[in-house]
Amino acid sequence: HDNVGQLLSSSKMMINAAMLQAPATAASLEEAQATLGKAIQEVRSLSKMMNAKWLEQFSLQENLQQEISRLHNMLQVNASLEALTDISLHNDQQLIIFRVVQEAIQNCLKHASASVINIDCLVQNNRLRMRITDNGKGMPSEAVSKAGSGLLHMQERIALLKGNIQWHKHVPSGTIVELDIPLR
């Protein structure tokens, strides 16, 4: 990611230089510069969110809230987090759950073209129950049986925690992903 950040920053500097030389195209260059600025921020944000040591500094709720802020700021997605209680997890549990939620969010955006994503968390009877809903196209029921690597990785990760993951069609549109994980 360091090289990508350097390339984006170099491109931004080249646009600055071009703006000084060609004032007539300044408006287009300013728009390109703003887009590059957003891309640089996104690369920085993503690199932090991919770093397990960075994530360990914060609680699951804090990491999910950072992810929601990123969705709001970078992608203009209406996302929310409802966590009714503090969730105390070991670092390995937290990382696995966070990665599964990240994958669910990416599926909402990439495959379902969702514009609204809600994450609800509840600790009940020493179990973490999470529900991720979206307003996208929905997921055909046969999609789970023909799961691609993303869904399979989600299942495998939750199985490591001796938990369950299920996908349901959300009425009137969208998908519901439900996680049920025993807490240690």
Summary of the model, kept short:
This protein has two domains: 2-47; 60-182, Histidine kinase-like ATPase, C-terminal domain (Heat Shock Protein 90, 2-Layer Sandwich), CATH 3.30.565. The protein is 55% helix and 20% strand. The protein contains seven helices and five strands.
Helices and strands, in order, run as: HHHHEHEEHHEE
Largest sheet: 5 strands, mixed
Class from helix and strand fractions:
alpha+beta
Strand content: 15-25%
Look up the CATH topology of the largest domain: Heat Shock Protein 90
Total number of strands: 5
Q: How would you describe the shape?
A: elongated
Ends: how far apart?
Answer: 35 Å
CATH 2nd-level architecture of the largest domain: 2-Layer Sandwich
Low-confidence stretches: none
Estimate percent helicity: 55-70%
Number of domains: 2
Radius of gyration: 19 Å
Helix tally equals 7
CATH superfamily of the largest domain: Histidine kinase-like ATPase, C-terminal domain
Strand order of the largest sheet: 1-2-3-5-4
Query: Quick one: CATH class of the largest domain?
Result: Alpha Beta
Mean pLDDT equals: 84
Features:
single chain, 184 residues, alpha+beta, Heat Shock Protein 90
SSE layout and pairing:
Blueprint lengths: L1 H20 L4 H25 L1 H5 L3 H16 L2 E6 L7 H20 L5 E9 L2 E8 L7 H4 L3 H12 L3 E6 L5 E8 L2
Parallel strand pairs: 1-2
Antiparallel strand pairs: 2-3, 3-5, 4-5
Question: Please, could you describe this protein's structure?
Answer:
The chain has helices spanning 2-21, 26-50, 52-56, 60-75, 91-110, 142-145, 149-160; strands at 78-83, 116-124, 127-134, 164-169, 175-182. It has 184 residues and is an alpha+beta fold. The protein folds into two domains: 2-47; 60-182, Histidine kinase-like ATPase, C-terminal domain (Heat Shock Protein 90, 2-Layer Sandwich), CATH 3.30.565.10. A five-stranded mixed beta sheet has the order 1-2-3-5-4. The longest helix has 25 residues, at 26-50. The mean pLDDT is 84.
